[in-house]
Design a protein that fits this description.
Layout lengths: L7 H20 L2 E4 L2 E4 L3 H18 L10 E4 L2 E4 L1
Antiparallel strand pairs: 1-2, 3-4
Helix pairs in contact: 1-2
Length: 81
């Protein structure tokens, strides 16, 4: 990814921009990001951008957060899956 110019810092920066855009659109009707004006109707596009940039951050992060264990309680016993 770094060969394309997408570093962890770039990905984190873009992710933060999309998070800010989502918050602004949810709190009002529109938000401007550079030369683009996004409206509540563009919320789907904003959320697709969030998923896209979160994927880059996850792939580029050298220290990902530890995986969490998920378990279920059935019949009074605890099993890890």
């Amino acid at each position: 990814m770094a060969a394309l110019g997408i570093t962890l810092a770039v990905a984190v920066g873009r992710l933060e921009q999309y998070l800010a855009a989502e918050a602004k659109v949810l709190g009002s009707q529109s938000y401007e990001m550079g030369d683009r004006k996004l409206t509540r109707a563009d919320l789907k596009e904003i959320r697709e951008g969030l998923v896209y940039w979160q994927g880059h951050v996850d792939r580029l992060n050298p220290n990902p957060p530890p995986a969490r264990a998920v378990g279920r309680v059935r019949g009074g016993s605890y099993r890890m899956r």
